[in-house]
Design the sequence.
């Protein structure tokens, strides 16, 4: 019996809300998505809680809630360990549920995965995978993160407002110096050869690239990297002043890898670096963002250095991509937003999106495939930088709102162009799904710190700035979980088991009656015991003894507010759009769609077995003939 669809394409857009997608379509920034809406079905989708990448994508790709798959958070409770020890959640080995791409392989089908987050280490056997770790700096492969070499009166370009914590935004590091100051000195002509002609004294600067710099510690590819120094010559080719920067490997003007004027990108070039005693090759590129005529301001940007191999399965796929597609870029400089100008970020973002599309096209055209997964994190980068002050509800000044709205629009327009390229791979037998793991909303009030609330209400104590576990009855673990410091369960436990339920009630009472001293408002929207948390699809010993949620006004972009919230120009509903054979046309679905329903619906349309641990259901309202298998069976018998 032939299934309705023969192939599937799953397009993931991390952090995009259905509310904002519909707004962007209405504002004219997403024509490709608009056409897809007209040929298929859509609905704001109920995602996971917390509204985070690890539980969201794992639920979508397994069809199981996180009580079953156990990928609860970025930082997950470590069983039997002290409460301040957690397990990093970006790891497929943590999932207790079968992924859809493994279901495909079990059915004899071939999957292709292109930058699908929460899919590393690879679990596929016969398919193809390119990268698949997490957002921005959260990856196992990069040689180093961005470098921003600055001199003179350079200044950053902050957007203002509160930053989301690394607990919900691991795409940007918040510790360490975020730029690389350099000194511009007169060139030492006794050390240099073959200097360019210059109308002004030539200046030089040492550009030190630090392997492993600006990566998340827990995910670095090694422990020690040997710094590598390049040399920059700053000179004046004409009487108008300093205009050019030449990047050289040695103090020889002819040993150059790039020649740049202001606003210009170099080509990619290959460099070798040493990490843990082993040579690693990576692709390097630079842009001269700013050079003033008198050289009192220099700004030279180098994005993430990505290796030429080691990030694909099978490993030989990287060689194919280097030959046929070009240098891969996993992070388009998100962690440098607010330092570099927005336009430079969008240039990198466009390269990133178009390159991902080229990778998908090359892989889909060079080998057989049955299901293609592709993903972008750009919309979530938007959540953690632009969306916070994109709406007047934030109280930001008009210029900041304008900058943020422009950032939103340009991001989603780039995503739409990428989607358009991916849709070229779909024929009349291909079902297409666009989905997201969670949404994102603007900010309004000061973000709440739950441990400070617990401290203010007498549950948590500190000594010399650290939690004093000998007095602390409860503390936050991960994003939305509060664990009681219980005797017999925790190594530092002080709460008697007979007082467990009483302590749960006391914590809930304290949270629900707490008033923010700045606004006088109650910031907590929800507080539940572990036993009651099953109503929001949380269960098991990795769930906090108390689970809480904030009113959207008291949180950042996402994470600690419920997956049904709407706030300002956006919301927390995940995206669900589906089009193709067997799917209704131009239909706004009215009945509920859940993130765990996507995988079983695709399997139903494709005629595949269900994922082994599936808890979701088939979205029958989306189908032209919900009983197509019975209809086909009857037809075959007749």
Sequence:
């Amino acid at each position: 019996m032939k299934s309705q669809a023969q192939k599937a394409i799953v397009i993931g857009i991390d952090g995009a809300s259905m509310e904002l997608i519909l707004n962007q379509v209405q504002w004219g920034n997403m024509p490709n998505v608009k056409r897809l809406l007209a040929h298929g079905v859509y609905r704001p989708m109920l995602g996971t809680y917390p509204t985070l990448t690890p539980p969201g994508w794992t639920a979508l790709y397994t069809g199981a809630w996180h009580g079953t798959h156990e990928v609860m958070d970025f930082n997950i409770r470590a069983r039997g360990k002290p409460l301040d020890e957690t397990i990093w959640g970006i790891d497929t080995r943590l999932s207790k549920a079968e992924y859809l791409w493994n279901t495909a392989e079990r059915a004899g089908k071939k999957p292709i995965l292109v930058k699908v987050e929460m899919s590393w280490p690879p679990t596929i056997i016969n398919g193809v995978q390119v990268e698949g770790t997490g957002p921005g700096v959260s990856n196992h492969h990069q040689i180093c993160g961005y470098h921003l070499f600055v001199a003179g009166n350079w200044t950053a370009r902050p957007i203002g407002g509160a930053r989301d914590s690394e607990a919900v935004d691991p795409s940007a590091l918040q510790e360490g110096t975020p730029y690389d100051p350099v000194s511009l000195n007169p060139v030492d002509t006794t050390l240099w050869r073959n200097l360019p002609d210059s109308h002004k004294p030539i200046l030089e600067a040492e550009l030190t690239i630090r392997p492993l710099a600006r990566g998340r510690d827990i995910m670095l590819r090694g422990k020690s990297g040997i710094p590598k120094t390049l040399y920059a010559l700053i000179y004046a080719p004409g009487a108008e002043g300093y205009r050019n920067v030449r990047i050289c490997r040695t103090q020889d003007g002819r040993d150059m890898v790039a020649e740049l004027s202001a606003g210009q990108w170099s080509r990619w070039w290959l460099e070798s670096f040493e990490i843990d005693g082993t040579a690693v090759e990576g692709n390097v590129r630079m842009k001269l963002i700013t050079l003033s005529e008198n050289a009192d301001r220099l700004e030279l940007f180098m994005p993430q250095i990505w290796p030429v191999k080691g990030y694909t399965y099978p490993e030989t796929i990287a060689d194919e991509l280097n030959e046929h597609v070009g240098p891969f870029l996993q992070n388009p400089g998100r962690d440098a937003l607010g330092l570099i100008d927005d336009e430079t970020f969008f240039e990198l973002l466009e390269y990133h999106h178009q390159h991902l599309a080229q990778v998908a096209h090359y892989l889909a055209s060079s080998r057989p495939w049955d299901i293609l997964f592709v993903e972008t994190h750009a919309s979530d980068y938007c959540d953690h930088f632009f969306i916070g002050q994109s709406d007047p509800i934030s109280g930001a000044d008009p210029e900041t709102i304008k900058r943020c709205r422009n950032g939103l629009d340009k991001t989603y327009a780039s995503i739409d162009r990428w989607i358009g390229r991916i849709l070229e791979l779909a024929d009349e037998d291909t079902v297409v799904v666009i989905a997201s793991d969670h949404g994102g909303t603007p900010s309004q009030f000061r973000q709440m710190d739950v441990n400070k609330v617990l401290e203010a209400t007498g549950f948590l104590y500190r000594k010399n700035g650290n939690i004093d576990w000998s007095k602390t009855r409860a503390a936050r673990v991960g994003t939305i979980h509060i664990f009681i410091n219980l005797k017999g369960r925790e190594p530092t436990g002080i709460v008697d088991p007979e007082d467990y339920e009483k302590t749960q009630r006391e914590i809930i009472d304290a949270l629900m009656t707490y008033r923010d001293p700045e606004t006088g408002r109650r910031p907590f929207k929800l507080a539940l015991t572990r036993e009651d948390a099953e109503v929001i699809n949380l269960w098991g010993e990795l769930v906090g003894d108390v689970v809480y949620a904030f009113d959207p006004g008291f949180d950042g972009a996402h994470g600690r507010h419920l997956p049904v919230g709407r706030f300002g120009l956006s919301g927390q509903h995940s995206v669900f759009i589906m089009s193709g054979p067997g799917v209704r046309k131009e239909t706004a679905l009215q009945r509920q769609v859940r993130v765990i329903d996507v995988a079983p619906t695709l399997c139903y349309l494709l005629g595949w077995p269900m994922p082994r641990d599936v808890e979701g259901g088939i979205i029958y309202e989306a189908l032209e003939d919900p009983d197509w298998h019975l209809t086909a069976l009857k037809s075959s018998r007749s």
